[in-house]
Each structure stands twice: as structure tokens, then as C-alpha cells.
Please model this.
Amino acid sequence: MQVQRHSKQRDAILENLCSRYDHPTAEDLYFSLKPRIPALSLATVYRNLAQLEGDGKIIKIGSGGTARYDGNINLHYHLTCLDCGGVFDIFLDTDCGLCKEASKAFDGRILSHSVLFTGYCPSCSKQVG
Amino acid sequence: MQVQRHSKQRDAILENLCSRYDHPTAEDLYFSLKPRIPALSLATVYRNLAQLEGDGKIIKIGSGGTARYDGNINLHYHLTCLDCGGVFDIFLDTDCGLCKEASKAFDGRILSHSVLFTGYCPSCSKQVG
DNA sequence: TCGCTAACGATAATCGTTATCGTTAGCGTT
DNA sequence: AACGCTAACGATAACGATTATCGTTAGCGA
Model:
């Protein structure tokens, strides 16, 4: 079996991602860490993001084009702002029993789900009116 | 203003997409139509899919990697099978008031939403057990 | 300290999608 | 029915995000 080794790069990536709430892209994380770790490679960022996602320590948000990442693994939803392009968290008290409802309606096995809202974020919806 | 002209290619793409339920990729549609329209270009497929989506006649499913398309524009959800990679429809009677709940919890404007379930499709979930 | 190899950095390759550009064909007007 | 305008086309180059390759580095158990 393959033993996973510890790495400073992965620590830094996870720590950086968990300390922010803007759902950065791989490149965002790369430029954010580059000053602290000058030798860092973009490939390393991608590699570790994939590994962390596989370990269930982060979430990948496949919002169409460029992938974004989220260090908050508690169930919550996202909204993509049509104006500024940002991704924002939406926390719902009730999960609306979505998986339960879907399991009733679908003859397969449902493991998880993600919800992506589209609209305007607080500041952009104020600007337009 | 720009007047939209009629085109045989767009007709064929829309018709093909609406007659199937497997959520094909742009390339799937291209190869499906190529025998009937030998001169068809993949760029034309992408162009028309984008236009049809903009006109609200089809839906684009941004399931992470390659985009898939759906000719059914009635609100419903999708499941990606972890085993075979296929995308399947999930119709819920109740929409669970998702947009309403989210609007209460989010200080912006919510226009639409999409839900993507992950799990195993009927046939794959039977094979594994 | 040694040896194995997971993880790294640099960079080439891949792949889905979009942009460019010369040509074709809808369609309103003569 | 021919004319002219330009949307849409087909072919292909370009792009951008992601992944693969490969020689080097560095965890970590012996």
C-alpha cells in the first residue's frame, strides 16, 4: 500500500485555504503562497488539492470554468454572482431533506449532493438595484 | 440589433439533443450528427449550444470536467454516477423550497439553482451490491 | 546514517472550449 | 428571380485549466 507522507507544501495549502472564505482557484492559492514558499510549483498546488479533496479535507467547487476550492467541509451551498463572478456561501438551517427526497425518487444509491445558486451577491445586488 | 437567422445545423442540434436522455457532451452531439451532416464542424456545435443555452432552450450541466447538455428545460436535478460516469435525471415532486429557503438565508438576489447528486446509477448500484 | 520512494519543481502535453478568418447561405429588399 | 447585407458556417489556430513526465529532493522507517 501507498503510505502518504507529510509535506510542508500540503500543510501550507490546507492552512491557507482554511483561513480564507473567498473560494480561491488553484492559481489564487499558488500566488498567495508563493511569497512564503518561493520554490512552490503550480503543479504541486493542483496535486495537493486533488489529494486533500480525496481525503475529504476540502471541497472542490466545479463552478463551470475554473475550479474553486473550499476549506469548509460542513454541508453548505454556494452562489455564483453573475456580476462580479465571486462565489459566496449559503448556509441553510434545514437541509430540506434533499438527499432523502431524491433517494425516494431515484432507484440508485445517492451519496452526496451539491447545490449551486445563481444570482447576485449582496454588494452587487445593491449596486444594480 | 442583431437578428438571429435560422440554420439547419442549429435545428439538427436541438432536435437531436431533445430526442435523447443521456445528457451528451458537445462531442457526442457532433459525432451523432456527423453522418447526417458530413460538413458539420465541432465549432458549430459549441456555437449553437451556447446560443441555445442563452435562448433558454437547453440547459448546460457543468458537471466538473466536460460540459454536458440537456434538452429538458423543466426544473429537475442530476446525478453523476461514480462508476460509469453517466449523468441521470432526478425528478422531485416538491422542489423543497430551496430557492425560498436560500433567499431567507442570503442577503443577495437568487435567480436559479442547480443540484448535482453524486452516487451510483440504478444499474451500477445493482452490480456492486 | 542509509535506502526507499512519495512528493517536489519545472515544463511539456493534453483536452475542452473559444477566437479567427475566409466562405456560405438566410432573408429582406429591389 | 437576382442583389446585398451579414449571421452562421467550416477549418483550424489559439487559449487556458489541468494533468503527465521526469529528474531531483526530502520524509521517514530500518
